[in-house]
Specification:
EC 6.3.5.4, 19 strands, six-stranded antiparallel beta sheet, ASN_synthetase/amidase, ATP binding, glutamine amidotransferase, about 575 residues, Glutamine Phosphoribosylpyrophosphate, subunit 1, domain 1
């Protein structure tokens, strides 16, 4: 993985080597193995590198030897060898073994349509000197981030992380409407940022910056094209697509491990990864002590698969580690597993540079309980719900940490209230999960917490060919009789025993309620949300106080995630306020 930065404009004097030193330093965890800078009359490109493929000759920014095009690229192109072969047959010549050069040559051959040929996770900025345009793109599911803004001189800036834009001198203007979305979801929707003046290239989008203007378009989406394959045929096709996806993600010039929780998804990933390794792969698990402990299942899976297994316990240094994560994250984010994902990544990065994960399986194969919630009720209730209820609206209501009425009471300025946290034409729970929850909550968490430790995480379930196929299979191939991921479990039964495969789902979420009720955490929460908290620039002190009191004094567990969300927001404002425009 890498960090990228770029500036396009007519007043680029301050983006010299001295000016870019703090910018690249802010991205050093994304790329600790080296950095590079390219200076041209109208553009500056910067890059920090985590060396994974072509360790010797893959340095960036990179120039296409035959064209006046230059690139700063973050990510991995999994089909780069196949693409390279096709491009050589079309007459292109290569001087490196890197996937970066394949993007340059693909652009030379196909223009911006090169994106339809790329299979991977990526964010890049490609400068075309002849056309004087900057071509930007981000992968289909939004695994790799890409932000942009304008500086006070009118220069166009891009970066992998917002902190790099701050290092370049930008001040963020907090958007209360985005904060309102956070209070609803515990994260910022993936098509916006927490700042009015800093923007994001959304997942599956690309852009062209030309003549001072940015034009953005969507180049891919999951389309409904129902597939009528039999269950047996679908099962075999999924096995083949998944095996191919894992195989492609096992390509690197460094050692690759796997994050193994002991659940269905990570066990399948680890088992298939071991197929493509001549030696035992390293696997990594985190436990929550007496609260939630899947370590025995991870150990069982490791022993069955034959991996070299490592574990760590979360919880001991909750406050200290939570603050570390929040300080690193550029935007408010309250996923309960941010902290454990961080220490798991720290453990993994001490042994490997790349790790596979099971992210995306629950969204694709309907592994969450909310998918079959209605099906677990009596028939007369299901009929009533079908007539009088809207499943999608009910779902949004159920996942909202604060309802609109509750947020209205919270805000000092009620004009922040809005419902812009559901993407256009999103009317199905599954599509909301894939287009909003997955990139906004889960993939952003995995990217930032892994990059904190210079660890690259690859997600085999998010192979776009696999996703397109699974998305269009009949729902009863994915969930049935109150059970999700039935096809994945069916496949896993060929590897693990029935009692392992069909046990109750636990998930990766941390025991937030129990942690918050610990005396030292309670003291920390009350101090963090005291009268001096920066959160009261936005929210009412007395209403926040009642929420805290309801949870602690009133022993009302229903306020658990409200307290957690407000705490994380307060800590985020505390650590990032120095980068903000004064209110």
């Amino acid at each position: 993985m890498c960090g990228i930065f770029g500036a396009v404009g007519k007043k680029l004097d301050k983006y010299d080597e001295g000016g870019l030193k703090p910018v690249l330093s802010s991205l050093s965890k994304r790329g600790p193995d080296g950095n590079g800078i390219l200076f041209l009359p109208s553009v500056v490109l910067g890059h920090t590198r985590l060396s994974i493929v072509d360790l010797k000759s893959g340095a960036q920014p990179m120039k296409d030897g035959g064209k006046n095009t230059y690139i700063s690229f973050n990510g991995e192109i999994y089909n780069y060898k196949e693409l390279k072969k096709e491009l050589i047959e079309k007459g292109h010549q290569f001087i490196t073994e890197s996937d970066t050069e394949v993007i340059l040559k693909s652009y030379a051959e196909y223009g911006t349509d090169c994106l339809s040929h790329l299979d991977g996770m990526f964010a890049f900025a490609l400068w075309d000197e002849k056309k004087q345009v900057l071509f930007l793109a981000r992968d289909r599911f939004g695994k790799k981030p890409l932000y942009y803004t304008f500086d006070k001189d009118g220069n166009f800036l891009i970066a992998s992380e917002i902190k790099a834009l701050f290092a370049a001198g930008i001040k963020g203007e907090v958007d209360p409407e985005a904060i309102d979305n956070y209070l609803t979801l515990m994260y910022i929707p993936p098509w916006k940022t927490v700042y009015k003046n800093i923007h994001v290239i959304p997942p599956a989008h690309a852009g062209i910056f030309e003549d001072g203007k940015i034009k953005i378009w969507k180049y891919w989406e999951l389309e409904e094209k129902p597939i009528k394959d039999s269950y047996a045929k679908a099962r075999e096709k999924i096995k083949n697509l998944f095996e191919d996806s894992v195989k492609k993600r096992m390509v690197a010039d460094v050692e690759i491990g796997s994050l193994l929780s002991g659940g269905v998804d990570s066990t399948l990933v680890s088992a298939y990864a071991q197929k493509f390794s001549k030696t035992p792969i390293k696997t990594f698990s985190v436990g929550y002590g007496e609260h939630i402990n899947e370590l025995p299942y991870a150990k069982e899976a490791s022993e069955k698969i034959g991996t070299d297994h490592y574990t760590i316990q979360a919880g001991g240094e909750l406050i200290k580690e939570l603050e570390k994560v929040i300080e690193y994250m550029d935007e408010p984010h309250a996923d309960s597993s941010n902290f454990p994902q961080h220490i798991l990544s720290e453990l993994a990065s001490s042994k490997v540079k790349v790790a596979l994960s099971g992210d995306g399986a629950d969204e694709l194969f309907m592994g969450y309980g909310w998918y079959w919630k209605y099906d677990n009720t009596k028939k007369i209730v299901r009929v009533k719900n079908a007539i009088f209820s809207n499943r999608f609206k009910e779902h949004i209501k159920n996942i909202s940490v604060f309802s609109k009425a509750e947020r209205k009471k919270l805000w000092n300025d009620k004009s922040a209230l809005n419902d812009d946290f559901i993407g256009k034409n999103i009317k199905k729970i599954n599509l909301f999960d894939l287009s909003t929850y997955l990139p906004g909550q889960l993939l952003s968490k995995v990217d930032r917490t892994s990059m904190m430790h210079s660890l690259e995480v690859r997600c085999p379930f998010l192979d776009y060919r696999l996703a397109e196929y699974v998305y269009n299979l009949p729902e009863n191939y994915k969930m049935k009789n109150g059970m999700g991921k039935i096809m994945l479990k069916d496949i896993l039964l060929g590897i693990m025993p029935e009692e392992f495969v069909n046990r109750k789902k636990q998930g990766f979420g941390a025991p937030i309620k129990e942690w918050l009720r610990e005396k030292k955490t309670e003291k920390f929460v009350i101090e963090a949300l005291g009268v001096d908290s920066p959160i009261y620039k936005y929210l009412k002190n007395d209403v926040v106080g009642k929420i805290i009191s309801s949870f602690y004094a009133g022993k009302d567990d229903s306020f658990c995630y409200k307290v957690w969300s407000i705490l994380c927001l307060s800590l985020w404002l505390k650590h990032h306020g120095k980068y903000h425009v004064s209110r």
